[in-house]
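Quick one: structure tokens for this chain, please?
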Amino acid sequence: MSGIQEMVAKKVKVTMIESLIKNQPNTFRSIFQRKKSKNEEDSSPSGSPKSIPQLSPFANSVVARCSKILQMPTEEMQQLFDSELPGINKEPETYSRSLLEFISYQTLYSMSRRPDYLSDKEFRRLAYDMMLAWECPGSESEPLPQFDDKKTVGPEAFARIAPACIALADIITVHNLFDSLTSSSGHRLHFLVFDKYIRSLDKVIKATKNALHPSTGNLHLSEGEIALEVDGTVPTQPVLQHIGISAWPGRLTLTSHALYFESLGVGLYDKAVRYDLAADTKQRIKPELTGPLGARLFDKAVMYKSTSVIDPVFLEFPEFKGSSRRDYWLDICLEVLRAHKFIRKHNLSEIQKSEVLARAVFGIFRIRAIREAFHVFSSHYRTLLTFNLAESLPGGDSILETLLDRLLLINGMQRDASGSPPAKQQRQSSPNFLLALSQLGFTLQKEIGYEGDAVLIGDVWVGERNPLEIVVRQSISDSGRAEAAQATVDQVKVEGIDTNLAVMKELLFPFLELARRIQILASWEDNFKSTVFLLLFCFAIIRNWIRFILPCVLVFLAVVMLFRRKFGKSKPLEPFRITSPPNRNAVEQLLTLQEVITQVEALIQDGNIFLLKIRALLFAVLPQATDMVALLLVFAALVFAFLPFKYIIMLVLVEAYTREMPYRKETSNKWIRRAREWWIRIPAAPVQLVKPDDKKKKS
């Protein structure tokens, strides 16, 4: 950047000298002519920057404004672009778009160094026009798309320009931010919406700076701790803290390191209780039900649990309709918690730790701006928070790994302001988010160790995508396929126990039919078929062919799937036809549910009784039965030790298969009856139910 500044200074001096010499002969004549207005001077051919032939008229107008801000002629900026990025694709459309990105990134960097730049309408207008120009950069580009007879911006242009200004967008969440801004405008971004978002973001940042300081009120924030959000200050919207059966209203504050709750006393707040989100105390934060006296009635609370607190803490956010207030606090608390988990997992250095927290802080600023400006809240899946998104997206772990690779390159060296590809910056990076946060007046780290002209370019490279952007796009693509698959799941869900049982019965029909046919053979209704099946099965076991059954089934399924893929592409999958059971009203559905629950309970009881009888046998409650079982176990051990396993399998199958033979049926039934009577005579081991001690006391 220092080279750009030197060239700018030289050019300013040369331009002043040339202008003085050029205008000297006309000085006398100019006295008698009217003074031109500022607008006329700016629009005059002598004062206007030269157009770049490769750019469209609108892109040239944007570049002309950038030229005045950078105080550098357009032709010199193009020369600098050609020298800095000699390997850029020379295709007309690609070249013009890359040139526009190069100039836009430098201009946004220069403007973002100004104090209070988010309040500057020129910054907001120019950033939006850069996106418009990005969509039609070349001289042969198609006209800009419109929505409601107005020029609008698409997602790609927003994703390439907005992250260049770190405060506006993060490359990881930029697509979700665009979706939030365009939810009601046909997926096209209006300037009025973009302008309102930045003004709201500016308002949120200023309010955060002025809200709390380390020595304000009952809070004593540590050095480098930033207060991010406060709730419960309005009497009609309190925050209730539940511990045990007690509940107290108060004020809740989220910082970059912890949660603080200040109970409301008689007109004053008590000393704040701190729940540290940065410590490694096995912390959990999740949505939970709360209510008076510990009743679980209202789904409007966040539960905090860790080894540092005896009982779980429930923070309730009462509201008349919905739970958006709770969901908002749940997400921003999880973002801070997950950021610290990421830091601890990879044992990051202090400056890397501050960079991670700065990224999380900017994400919370943006979600606050969206929420306050448009009164909408992103869903948990398509969130605006970086670390929450990485948890929910498919391949989110790859995003965090790529982010870690970038963090490990932070070594105190500066980057190129152009946002160049990694040819000049393979082994260096700067804490861009930390520096941008510091420039806005927030201190996460007292001494950063970077000079005042450190570059604040975001995760964008001219003319190509960096690894972080590539992995994010891949993850978004995978999430799109996951959402499409989930949509088909939602379509086939049916209601009612009997209906779901009917669906399952039809889906399992091939297996049920196979089991029915084997049962018919085992019942010896047709002696010839049953005998042939038994002989074939025994022969397969003896020849050790049984081990090929499962591989053959798997290969057969693979061949069927490949055949279907090859020759069944054009044929859509026909819907699975199921005969629905008779309709039942709500009472009948409840009775069916009660019957199913009763059957499940009976199965669990039978399982418990079986285990208790086994326990009685192990501890010789009935000595005679214990002796018999012990002998059987020794005999089984000898069989398994000396008889080949395939013969054991054959004997077991033959015994089970031939129980219904005419020659064995009576004897088998007799032995089964004797075994059942013997099992009934075995007592169950005793069980004693002990009630847990309730040590929770009302505070």
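The two ends are 62 Å apart (CA to CA).
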